[in-house]
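Data availability (excerpt). The following record was deposited with the supplementary files.
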Amino acid sequence: MGQLWLFGGKGGVGKTTTACSTAIWAAKSGINTLLVSSDPAHSTSDSLNFKLNSTPTPVDGIPNLWGLELDLKDSLDNLMPNLSSAIESSGSGFSPLLMQNEDLDELKDEVSSLDSAQLMLPGLDEALAFDMLLKFVEDTEYDLIVFDTAPTGHTIRFLSLPELLEVWTARALKMFRAMGGIKTMLFGSKQEKAIKDELERFGKRVAHIRRIISDPEITRFTLVTIPESMGVSETLRAAEQLSEFNIKINGIVINRLTPDLDHEFLKSRRKIEEKYVLKLVDYFKESSIAKLELGKSDIHGLELLIQIGEELHGTHISFPENMEINEISKNLPVRIRRSKLIREENDKTIINLYLPGAIKQDLSLRGDGNLLYVGINERENTIELSHEVDVDKTKAKFANNILKLEVFQPLV
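Predicted structure:
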């Protein structure tokens, strides 16, 4: 399971630049890194000057780095199927004895313009983003997932969602029953049950996601801000709101500081900014603070992002090939470890998987040929081995968040 590093803050303060430069720095240090964005404006692609899509894509020129931009609309449509299509698909089965054609047409017209987006409630789009994100967090291919979040207010809405979801689910099901009541009477309640089951599963995943992002062993939350009144006020407010959900801020990035040059206007500007910097330093006594000065050009493209990454995190390291916990980054230190380590030993393959937050009951194993499938919360990781897999003869031990598997080679 990869460890999650979230970058948050109000819009326009440099979250995307900070997240991209961090992901590049980590990848160049030998850490398998996935950079994720939920921004529909594709600002991450623009920052990298490299086109990303909705599946993990290797970033040209940076080994160990993949990127993706989440497609929330597709995820929402999968969660809540289009209502009008449900009515349309049942039209051919209606009996004229039960409903006149004009009545059926009126019902179809009523729902023809409705789709899943109209069942949206505050926080659901963020929940979908985090639910999709969790799929990659639980993928052992990545050691680190860097998430360029939406403005922090959106994250707060998501964190409040579990309390709203139960009421909203009942409302959504009531709507489905009202609009699909005739179909249910004629064809049974399979569709309603499927929708109800999916909503319940989704609710459980939302609760699980919230546990993940409030676990400091799995998730780090860095706030990005600028040395201005509104930026600082938003940062302090965000920290207070996040603390209500037991989310600890591990670091602050103060971006776009005026360069310390011998010029009257710049000196005056710097003096004003210093008051805001001191306010942040005083408030975040227990957090690391990194500072970035305003550059002479826009930051986009790999070359400039590499420079920013080195300013933030220092010279590149060589991440050890073991399962030990290692501290990375000079100015924003975080502790991470490899997500997966595989080695051959005599007549067996030994696999170590780091699965923080996992529960033993939620783990599963199955084999198919030389493929081993490790399930985490009903999502499976595929591990390709050099020999056939016999799960019945595989030894498994889960302790201290590490799943150790001994997969024995078949006897010839």
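Summary of structural features: The first strand starts at residue 3 and ends at 8.
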